[in-house]
Amino acid sequence: MLTHAWIIPLIPAISFVLILAIGKKLPRGGSEIGIASVAICFVLALTVAFGWVSRVNDGTPPEGRQSSQSYLITEGHETRPVTEADAEAENGTDAAAHGTEAEATSTDHEAEATESTEATATEDEHGTETSAEGEEGGEEHHATSAVVRDMTWFDSGGFDIRVGTMVDGLSSLMLVVVTLISLLVHVFSTDYVAGDRRYTHYFAFLSLFTASMLFFVLSSSTIQMIVGWELVGLCSFALIGHWWEEKPNSDAALKAFLTNRVGDVGLLCGMIILFFAANGSFDIVRITEMANEGAIRHSLLLIASLSLMTAVMSKSGQFVLHTWLPDAMAGPTPVSALIHAATMVVAGIYMVARLYPVFFEGLSIGTGNINALAIMGSVTLLFGALLAFVQSDIKKVLAYSTISQLGYMVMALGVGAWTAAIFHLFTHAIFKACLFLGSGSLAHHIHSFDMKKDMGGMRKVMPKTYATFLIGTAALMGVPLVTAGFWSKDEILAGAHMLGGGGDGYPFAIVMGLLGAICTCAYMTRAIWYVFFGEPRGKSAEMELHENGPRIVVPLMILAFGSIVAGFVNIPDGSIPWPAKWQLWFEHMVEPTGTYFVATNPDFGHPSFLPWVAVVSFGAIVVGAGAAYLWYWKGLGPHGITERNRFARAGYVVLEKKYGLDILYTDWIAGGVKGPIARAAYWINQNVIDGLVNLVGRTAAKTGQWVYRYVDQGAIDGAVNGSGATASGAGEVLRKTQTGKVQTYGSYLFVGAALLAAVIVVIAS
Amino acid sequence: MKDLLNSWGPTAATFLPLVGMLVLLAIPKTEETLAKVVALVTTTSVFVVVVAMLFEFDYDSTGTMQFALDKSWIEAINARYTIGIDGMSLPLIVLTAFVMPFVVIYSWDHFPEPKNPKVFLTLLLILETGMVGCFVAQDLLLFFVFFEVVLLPMFFLIGVFGGDDRKYASFKFFLYTVFGSAFMIVSILAVYFLYAQNVGDGTGTFSLAALSAWGGEGLAKNTGILIFGGFFLAFGVKVPMFPFHTWLPDAHTQAPTQGSVILAAVLLKLGTYGFIRIAIPLLPEAAKWWAPIIGLLAVIGIIYGALGCLAQTDMKRLIAFSSVAHMGYVMLGIATLTPLGINAAIFGMVAHGLITGMLFFIAGSVKDRFHTLDMSRLGGLLLKAPHMGWLLGFSVMASLGLPGLAGFWGEFPALLAAYSPAEGLSEPVFRTFMVIGAIGTIFAAGYLLWMLQRVAFGRPTEEFEDEHIHDMHLTDYIAWAPFIVMIVVLGVYPQLIFKITDGAVVQSLAAITGN
Amino acid sequence: MPASLLAVTTETYSTPVLDWHALAPLVILMVTLGLAIIVDSISARRTSTVLPNLAGLGMLAALIPVLTLAISDDRSRELFGGSFVVDRFSLLMSALFLVAGYVTVLLSTNYIAEGDYHEGEYYFLLVASVAGMVFMASARDLISIFVALELLSIPAYLLASWRKRTQTGIEGGMKYYLMGVFASAIMLYGMSLIFGGTGHTRLVDVGEALHGSFGSEPIAVIGIVLTLVGFAFKVSAVPFHNWAPDTYEGAPTPITAFLSVASKAAGFVALIQLIFVGFLGRDDVVRPMMFILAALTMFVGNVIALRQTNVVRLFAYSSVAQAGFILAPLAVVAADDPAVLSGIVESMTLYLVAYALMNLGAFAVIIAVSRRTGTGEMDSWGGLFSWAPALAVTMAIFLFSLGGIPPMLGWNAKFRLFDAVVSAGTASAYTMAVIMAINTVISMAYYLTLVRRMFVDDAPDGDHTPIKVPVPLVAAMAITATVVVVAGVIPGPLSDLAQSATLAIAG
Amino acid sequence: MLLNQFLVLAAVLFCIGVYGVIARKNGVLVLMSVELILNAVNINLVAFSAMTDSISGQVFALFVIAVAAAEVGVGLAIVLAIFRTHKTVDLDQVDLMKG
After folding, report:
1. How far apart are CA A730 and CA C303, in angstroms?
2. pTM, whole model, 2 decimals?
3. What is the spatial distance between Cα B181 and Cα B178, in angstroms, rounded to a whole number?
4. C interface toward B at CB cutoff 8 Å?
5. What is the per-residue burial (b if ≥16 Cβ within 10 Å, else e) of D73-88?
6. Mind listing the domains of chain D with CATH numbers?
7. ipTM given for this complex
8. What is the pLDDT of residues A391-403, one digit of tens each?
9. C424 near C355, Cβ under 8 Å?
């Protein structure tokens, strides 16, 4: 199955076409096709994941997988090589990793006549190196290389541009996450958008999105990543603008697409630089290997990684280019859950993780104490968290929360905690999807997301939603030990302490991470208060509310369940009693060990569990959530501090903050954050950054108009028409010489002849 | 059959339309349906011939001239009727032959005012002869003749069947192009005589093969540069490159839909094709001197075209301006003088032809139904005519270079090539072009989506709220579907074109790349 | 003096052996002239169709010996001590004049018959003028050139004044006449200087003498320049062009066509003969003069044409500009490069043929259209396509041909002009080519204006009644349009013809 | 020496003639001026003929005389017609067509 992963994106792609073609005629408007296809994908994704797990565990592809493939429509020669691969793989048990890799690639060559021999050499070579280094390094598990299968996409100018699939732990994980969330969102949507006039189109685009996302995560070449990257952007555009009759919705869609295009410039440039840096190859394995081996100049890697960071900035909502993401909440809520929380927005994270050696070397992550990626992530995580404070729209709270959490992941990658980032990606996808779908469930009847105006006291009417939302929130806050969020966030913070020049790690990252954690707890507590406690307001008071049906609630429950258990796949050593076999199982399975990853880089490492980090982060929860609790439930705290003399307060802070966390909390968190800082941040966000974005748009349009009016129609066209007019004007002047008097003509004739004679006598003699 | 095709295929493809035209002339004016049938049969048979050649084409040697024919033409100056097809021209011939039948089908019930199908179809057929002729001609003079022949029917298409401002537009179109080609004549002759002096033992030649083989060796640098300048003017106007582009928006806006489609799909390609077929192989050294200038004008065109689009209120004019930007990518690819870049350029030509053609079809149909293209009066197309609205969205996405659709493979590889231009060209300069070109993609998305939003999204304006708007006709479906299919197919499997062009391009650049 | 004169004659006189075959075209024309007078005087009805038919047949008949001479052999026949030469060049040109004359008769038939004009004298003068032209094609002596010039001009003055009862008609004729005699007087003065310096009137001898010591004297330069000015007037080169627009406007339209085609061609024939047979020794004089004239003529003619509102005046300026194009190759004459020389003559010959065809055709359409509109104003051409599509298409063919757009004949001819210019390979040659290129574009602008009127504009009065075109006009249009299109697509035969014709003179 | 005097005479005549053509208003006088030029030419031709001892100059002169007669005949007819239509022979006033 690992070599046949290409089927997975194909299924939803076919489903997209089918839904568009015949969806409207089906009893359920095409949603059944969508669900079926995603369900199949999910099963296949699990198959791939199990395949990978077995591959890691014993270096042997699992038996009997072919049976599950037999129903797939494949050409005869496509299934055969796998059998051979399996057979051969059994022989090569001693040199497990090497053998497997070689077979995987060699069989591919048999299958694909178009495959170049050069690629074979690379693959084989890299398989060998992997196993060799694995033994030397004394790693406890075998180095397991990715299964790459590709074919020529096109040849141009002597370059062989290839397309294919690359299956390893990372992509297997993404397959599972994407198909799982997508499946649940599909199911949820059948109820949520029921009766929508574009029900069929909605499911069609969900299918297309799923296909694109799966295509993206399976990419074996960077050009393929670009393709997937843009296609998911298209789906995002289409789904944000799903209700395009209203201008704000289409505005938001445009904004999302255009902001992403800004980042795409970085993506294109970065990928182009890497293409030539790798001597003309888009192959991810090749690029990363060369980056790893130092075969690419550091300056190139630096420029490439900075360019690619722009792309991350837009796609993953990092600071400055994040403004499209909150606006994207104009789309249907399940879309927000799927695209704008769980999957598409982590494409940037995935891209960095996929090309990690480029960033690791380019930004000197292993040896520096500060780098652009870490700064971007940490600023985003704090900034996003602050912004979440002042939202009254529950989806916007979650959107800013997503930005903040994405900031965590980017920061984790920036400080070298690769696994932590991916682990957080995994858990976040689950609990944030849970929260988003929860908010959708809340708003399903009242059709409003305004916490302050239209919600309140909803825990009584929607107990199941309440429960799941609460679990999701707990995971987001990172309630220790029991929630998924705890384990992943904790690992990030621990990771920030791990690498860096002089063993100091990235101290600012830890600080920012903790501050972000406090804010996160506070704003989520605030949101819980507004939504579920107090008296019903607005629409929720006017309407008879009741819990939603199973198609909405069941996905919530599954996700809530996931929000708890997902953390236990990567329990660090020495934290809680846990079977050794399952300790760091996630890391073991997902983190690549081949030469295309930095695992062999001496600067790279893994964080160990740090109890004090856990304690501190627990403290952060207590502080954040507690403060918000006191503020909202008990009405405590200096309400209205913003009205008082800020200058005095500033002096007070400077003097008093060393006295302890409670002072810090009182003035900074509750008063400051809730008040001026968050508001200022929001003001900056709406007016400066967003304003800037809008300004750029407006300026472009204005410039366009100016250029068109003055340069194009004025100068250039003017010059052309002007030369015409000049010729015509000259004609008018010369016309005057035709006086009509014959003797004038006569004088022309004679003077002309005389002048000619005179001139030519001079010239010719 | 095969032999016949081998020697007479291109000739048949070129002159069948003329035969059709003669038949058409013999038909009385009142027999409109018969006229349409004749036109359709003619264009279809051209397409059939081209497809037959497509099957006969030897894809392993795309660099050699196939289906070649060499007959005497004007003996006095050694101009010959030399035609043939190689990998560089094949995609464009197929594109031309592909577009025409569907244009005729679209015309079935969309005849522009004044409704005179006979004249209209006659012009279309003459146009097809000119276009196919340009792509098959392997003799410089023959090429020039076809290059100019194309002008006449297009002039009348715009001038007689165009919009309100058609006088000005047709005039401008014609004069601009004549301006360029007048200088090309001088260059052609200069090449002819310099060949005679340098290698031809006093005998000049217009044979592209011979001239390319010579490649301007032994010429003074400035001579080459000036001669290239003549070609540059002619082809630059046709492309059109900034700052020779101002005829294009007017021509596009005023032309009837079919005219716009052909203009965008094929005519503009004559300019870029001229660059890669004639200017660069003939004068590789001069091309290197010109490349940075072409590149600069190309990226200026990209940004400038985009800015021009943002200022438009008329949908068709916006699409027209977008051509300036898109052809900028094509020219950027050409300016790199690398096989990668020129392959991308050819792909870009085909893709732009399909996509912009499609956009013009839609714009024409919108005009047909709403009687205006003023975007402030349009809106809610998706509500009024959902199928057309979706297709507009599709075309917009293709046009802004969405991967997976054809537009991307013209754009991205061109940028890719700009990173590493041919030897002797300044890398920093071209990398700057690359970045500017990449920034241009933002603008492309900007104006196209802006147009989509204003035309398709939202609700219809009061003016059209209650008016019945007919969604697509059967002829629309028949005419457009192939375009859409091709856009998707080429987008998914770009090798279809790259495989054809690669060999020929590599060979034509041999003098530059040193192979 | 008389004694010596007598002595000379008695010593050398012998009865010249006349080659009647070579003279046959002229003889036939002369016979036609005589017949025309007789028929006119005995014919009772003044509006009979006999005269035009007679004139036309006479010219066609004169074509027969031209053809037989052409196919007889390649030898060039010299008569009267080399003053009168019948070679391929003169034959081709004679044929051109005869065809042009015939087409003019076709154009005139209805025009003259329907207007209040004298018919008998008209055709008589027309044939006389054509005879002068045919004579010019063979004249290789200063005297015979002069006589031929006057023979073709004096009838033309009268023809141009044919509308003598209208103010414009006689005004145009007067201007043509006065400028004509003035120019020929200046030309004669130049010829007298050349004769004085060389002692010969035969062009071949003049050419040899110019290579000698006289050739380097300034007086020779003045003689050459003044002589050429006389023919520059004839081809209406700037600044000797002013008569053309006024005369063209005032003259009967068929005569306008005749003047702009045949008379101009005769001027070029004389120029070619003078330069290639006589003045080649001073190509350094001819080159700058022709460069200046050609450039000025193209620019001035084209630019003023842009501002014309009357179709006939537009064509007058167009014909001025076209003359500039034809002059252009003369700006690169190089005595030492036979390839260039033959290229120049060939291209000019070809262009003259092409120009004659397309201009005559265009005038045929103009006459046909003005039959209905009764005016030459361009406004009256609006929407021609809607009420006379065939006329509009035919006119468009001629206009595009004049502008040099493929696949019309004009394109090929113009290309050959470029070809001839560039073949010299000098800097001034390339400059001239660029000037020609720019002027091609300018000229296209006013040709297009007319096309636009016909196809894009609406009929001025909304009158769409079709037009009735008389048969002779249809014939004229059909002949010219067919040749223009066919020879444009297959230019081989015509250019072969031009090539063979030029061997004799430039060889 | 002798020749030069003839030539100077011819040149002076030529110049007078040119002046007359350009400056005189009366159409008939303009015709006469043209005749002056032609006569200048004739003097030249005959003088040269005598100097070079070549007969063709005299023949040429005869032709010129003959042709001049024909020209003047036509010219006078045209001037007459001008007078009929314009009621004047002042050439300055005959400028209906211009531009």
Report:
1. 7
2. 0.86
3. 5
4. 339, 346, 385-386, 400, 403, 405-407, 411-412, 415-416, 418-419, 422-423, 425, 430, 433-434, 436-438, 440-441, 444-445, 448-449, 451-452, 455-457, 491-492, 495-496, 498-499
5. ebbebbbebbeebbee
6. 3-97 (1.10.287.3510)
7. 0.83
8. 778 888 888 889 9
9. no
